[in-house]
Amino acid sequence: MKEKYNFKEIEPKWQRHWEAIDLYKVTEDKDKPKYYCLEMFPYPSGNLHMGHVRNYSIGDVIARYKRMQGYNVLHPMGWDAFGLPAENAAIHNGIPPSEWTWSNIANMRRQLHSMGISYDWDREVATCHPNYYRWTQWLFLQMYKHGLAYRKKAAVNWCPSCATVLANEQVVDGSCERCSTTVVRKDLEQWFFRITDYADRLLEDLKELSGWPEKVKIMQENWIGKSTGAEVIFQVEGSGEEIPVFTTRPDTLYGVSYMVLAPEHPLVEKLTAGTEYARSVNEFVESARYLSALDRTASEKEKEGLFTGAYAINPVNNERVPIWIANYVLMEYGTGAVMGVPAHDERDFEFATKYNLPIKVVIQPTEGNLEENLKEAYVEDGVMVNSGPFSGLPNREGIKKIIEYLENNGKGKARVTYRLRDWLISRQRYWGAPIPMVYCDKCGLVPVPEDELPVILPEGVEFKPTGESPLLSCPEFVNTNCPKCGGPARRETDTMDTFVCSSWYFLRYTSPDSKEEAFKREKVDYWMNVDQYIGGVEHAILHLMYARFFTKALADFGLVGVQEPFQNLLTQGMVLKEGSKMSKSKGNVVSPEEIIDQYGADTARLFILFAAPPERDLEWSDQGVEGCYRFLNRVWRLTYFYADKVKGYNNQQPKIGNNKEQELWRLLHNTIKRVTEDIEQRFNFNTAISAIMELVNGCYHYKDAVPEEDQNYELIAEVLRKLVTILAPFAPHITEELWQSLGGSQSVHLEEWPKYDEKALVEQEVTLVVQINGKLKDRLKVPVGLEKNEIEKIVLNREKISNLVNGQQVVKVIYVPDKLVNIVVKSS
Fold it and tell me: What is the pTM of this model?
């Protein structure tokens, strides 16, 4: 063992060794409990950032710890490799997306190797590889066969700059999340997955996810947005048209003073055609097309509307209700129509006040009365008034009675709705998995036969500055033969949303080389669920919801035996510098490669795990990195000092003699207990590392306090072996080197995780606080468990206490065992 800690020599050495012996390669083993540890796979942007380092370091500690506990651990890595940045690179730099992507993958794989992460690289997947997206396409066809994939014309969020459709979640403040261009509404034929068929199950099964953060479950619950109420039918005056409206408050039906349709509602044109309102309404409809759905419904957005000239009939009192259109009502939510009850809804109150529409009070508080001229909407429960035969009922009872009335008279029914919308998967771009469908003038929509998959993306396509998908102008891709009739046909030129690719990758890891099926059922049955999933909270709604939907659908198809993909979820915080998220534009980026080059991977890992609990944001600190590097050097020097002296003392129970030895032995077992519990129960890696640092301090204290000739090398050998073992998941390279220097015969990462001895935790001595009349006067060390009469003799015979008590009467002695003695005295 060399005297100086040289990470530049040690780290590559052990990385090569681990790879050479396939240390992290894993196969199914029925004799071991399994553990599937997975971090969200990255988009191959070209370089790892500190957020990646944190994510993968967390996962690696868990994987290494579980291996040492005897688990058969699956810990794979891959690449979420399709997406728009590759196309942008092709447009701006003239590099084909595949070349750009594979080059980035190679670099990031090298960076991950340099971190010493314990991945089974034989299971690596990349979603852009035909061997992977063949099965993404196959899964699309299964969705299609089971009626879960369908095509319809729909208003979508369109980014003119990216020339593609955006999901609602990808529109931020009315702009494209990628390029910040203002998003407009556009009608296109689109492919959807019927995720709404699973809304109830997605909601109900959140209760089963006890290992998920509550905030993530609440975010999913809100996104699904279950609402219970009634669908009410309003007749359009003077026509046979009906307008169904969903409301959670049928108790307020008598307070309806207007109705609002979405500008894109198909009735709008019918109601205004040939009327004096047609021109102004058409202009309003056109202006609404340039607002995104999120922008139109934002609470701070001013509500704007226009009267159509038409009226509807209120089904409970036959009153005429003016029909308006307004920017805040969307066709894709509910029925595209809402009833306006301004006295009891804040948004309706704001709209009615602006346009001077009637405000009718139909719910009064149980105590007191609302003023005639309301200053704000009353939205609480109360008693129904001005509501015909329902007046006087508590409004919650009134909800049931009104629904009964509607159902009995054919004017409505009880209904449950969801905020969740079907998943729009069409993307008008090249670098994605082609949708395996063909359009034939004779046969219509025809799926590509499974034995003809994958539908391969063509190479050498031309990328235009407009961002238009090059597949549209690639005749060798577009033109094909119909699988049914053999006649000329056209391929679908949309590709799939990249979230489709990432909704099943955790299944592919179980059998990544399978050529006959997407994944082998027996392998999935062995490995699934993922025991621990780790990633950013920004994926709480999209990726995690879609992966849950996929798993449930595949279970229904008989392809998997689990209903949920991820048993436990850890959402790590961001890495900040100077209080802000690291970004190139802010000039506060810290390069992982530079840190690894300057301090080593073990230091980088140790700091990122020590600086904050994993679920909290972490503030970068150069001084903190230096501190972790110094700590590893202390561990190195300690082991170097003793390495030759403790050889031969292998796995022997040390004989413990004096107090110094007892203190060190107790500290060792207390540290094992703390580190084990911090990893196992809380993932508090920061406090686990802190405990290890305290143990190292204790070792140095023993080394400096006890003459060399009196030191217990049998004890030191045991302490050092356990120290290196519990440090190994955090700093895998240095501990491997130290383990060998201590005589280890196999990899430290194959060692069994140490168990602490409960008996060793029991202190032999305690520090007793001595008080006189409640005031601290002394401290002394005494054996544990002394009786009160023994303590009195010891304390009162101490010279310091005897002098203080001298001449006074001892009234009583209060003793709190092993903690405190209080001598109560009074003047004689």
Answer: 0.88
